[in-house]
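LAB NOTEBOOK - FOLDING QUEUE
OPERATOR: T.R.
BATCH SIZE: 2
PURPOSE: Compare the predicted structure-token outputs for two unrelated chains run back to back under identical settings.
PRIORITY: normal
REVIEWER: second-year student, initials M.K.

ITEM 1
FIELD SEQUENCE / FIELD STRUCTURE:
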Amino acid sequence: MSESTVARTVLAFDLGTGGCKAALVDERGAVLETVFVEYPTRYPNPGWHEQRPADWWRAVVESTLTLTGAARANGIAETTVSAISLSGQSLAFVPCDAELTPLVDAVPIWSDSRAGEQAAAFFERVPEDEWYLKTGNGFPASLYTVFELAWYAQHHPDVIEGARWFLGSKDWINARLTGQIATDPSYASGLGAYDLAGRRYDAGLLAALGVDEVKLPPIVPSHSVIGALTEQVADELGLAPGVRVVAGGVDNSCMSLGAGLDRPNQMYLSLGSSNWLTVSSPAPILDTVQHPYVFDHVIEGLYVSALSTFAGGSSISWLANLFEMKVADMLELADRSAPGSAPIVVPTLGGGTVAEGGPEVRGVIAGLDLGHGRGELARAVVEGVAYSLAGTAALLSEHVPIPEEIVAVGGGARSALLMQTLADVLDRRIVRVPNDQHAAALGAAALALLGIGAWDDLSPLRSQLSPTEVYSPRASRAAANAAARTLFEAAAEFAKATAPLGRALRTR
């Protein structure tokens, strides 16, 4: 591609759990180059899941240099980069000083559950349903930032006292890029003290939790230009000074945009390490029994509400590692086993959502037989992910209609077996779209293109989302799947009922 064919490009980064997915996107919304830079997660104690902000920064720098190098090789000069935008993993925070230096080497990420005691103590004073209905924070409460801050206040008060800012993952990177402090509504809505209806920090919740609002970043629209690269950072990234940086959004909301959820009552399915069904709507979907989790959308006037299974994709990866196989090879083995021949697997190996039984719940294998081999076990995990997501669809259907066609994104969308199994079990068409592996980065890129005025609306994004593969439900599998799902639901109830006993055994 020659430089003359590209009027403007933007760099988009998706700071995920496993690493940074970065993309160079042109003003048509086409992804020109991509790269993935991995970074590790530490597990120093039970329930502690930590990453180093320095690793996030390294990934941004490395991926920028790789992308611009590839662009030069393809005739796209790096001076065409007009803006940068980030999608950031939710519920992470960096306590840092006025110079943006982190006060700890590694910080809790979204799956860190160390703050259980702090959350429980808070709900002795404030009814949990009242908190949930105000914030929409439907993950287990111990995962939310305000309770992690309370944990630090108890165990490391020097960190809380010495911090000038508490910044989210992408907001700390944005601050490093520009020197400017800001967040957006979507990321702020994962704080644990955000008023969904008012779309602002909730002063009463912050006061009750002892969090100083002065240390939180101001909230600006997700497509706002918050600043430009400093000369020092531009030199480090190999970019021109003055490249604009857009506020960006939380990963759930950026992925929603990148999957096409820019209007009400659209739905997508994420198939990564964790799996979820998300719907866009003008009002949040709130349910005090099942706890859908809600984020403000990066599109003004909308919310995204979702239910998930935390460890679906991780359970598939775990089994592949156990078998010492590549995931693709294991799924091929699973595909060769006969449908209906597998046991039942409840894929909550890494804990679950409130609907699944919370952080204490663990996985279950039911109906295991001496005749079962690796193929049947692999198929069982795939089917378990599908049955779990069918349960989330049933819960969401109590509030919104489930569309006949659902876009799937993430690594699992590359598996024909998983996609067809989902179509059969959900009784819906499951479709792949271009760039389905880069939905969050594409959503962030769309925000950048809106922010710098390259786009007036989202029609260029919609043009990039025509289905490339469609998996339709097979009527021949309906009866067998219904019977297997009944056994799955019984096994899932067993997993929830025995979760406290399992935790007691693990902590002895």
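ITEM 2
FIELD SEQUENCE / FIELD STRUCTURE:
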Amino acid sequence: MSLRKRLLVSFAALLYYSGFIAIARWLTARQGQRLIILNYHRAADGNLRQHLCYLCRHYRIVPIEDALEELYAPHTGKSRRRGRIPLVLTFDDGYQDNYTYALPLAQELRTPFTVYLVPGYIDSGEYFWWFEGKRLVERAQVREATVEGALYRLDKPAERQALSTLIDTRLRYASSVAEREAFLTKVRAILQISADVLEQEKPLMPLTWEQVHEMQQSGMVYFGAHTMHHPILSYLSDAEERKREITECRAVLKQRLGEDVRTFAYPVGQEQHIGDETYKAVRQAGFAWAVTTHYGFNTPQTDPWRLRRIEADVDQHWLVLAAEAAGVWGLISRLRWLPIVRKNFTNSR
């Protein structure tokens, strides 16, 4: 564990054992109706069990659609302030370990969660594009490679990193899914990578439809849409492609799951990755709600297509998660306390 992470855990422990986090939870509950949505990706090789055990003790973990119907239902106010704050668990992308690790935990601890699926990757069984920069360079079968006019000597660590960064950048900013996939095909050919060279790291692979159906039948896992192929929607040059990524995802999931899908998660999910046209397309596609990665709690006044989530990672110590879920990072930012600690919290995200 790095020094910065140790300091962050120590500070979170001070907040927890001093009672500050409990006070923050109490203040949040007193402010009126609130909904916390946590945003995970991977499930295994971390502290997810400790996270869920803590959350079960202090929050009411609710399926996302139930929580949102409650949030936006007419209410008097007083009755909604009683009891524990509702909290939703979400996992973006649909990794294998959501099935192998998160599902058994959810069944054991009775903690429902939602997975935002990318049907194109489930159908193809290929690695998600954001792992490919590092993965392809690590498995290159050549010592030198010329990509987009620049020579990279792959026995030099700095040049290997530079090529990995280039690949990731080109994939991330692709103006269409076709452009992204064509670039990947070209890079694989340049690096002389064949299928037998690319060993499969199962935890990083997408779920299969069989696993999705088993998770659905468990009664503990719910599903939402995350586009057909996970492009960054604001970077797509064709408005019609942007619409197809959204509408076809919903149609495919409805057909595969046998039930409607009402929630959508924007890929990457910050404002620069979404844009006004995407918000409009999501509403027109018939989604009742959509989640971003903007930090914060949700209230009945929150735009249903701009719901906020708090980033959570299984690498986080449960004490740090406790501070995040209680909104301590946001509270400290608002009160402008302890600028050094505030910087640590900002850097941890």
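REVIEWER COMMENT (ITEM 2): The domain at 3-94+108-125+239-260+273-348 is CATH 3.20.20.370 (TIM Barrel).
FOLLOW-UP: none requested
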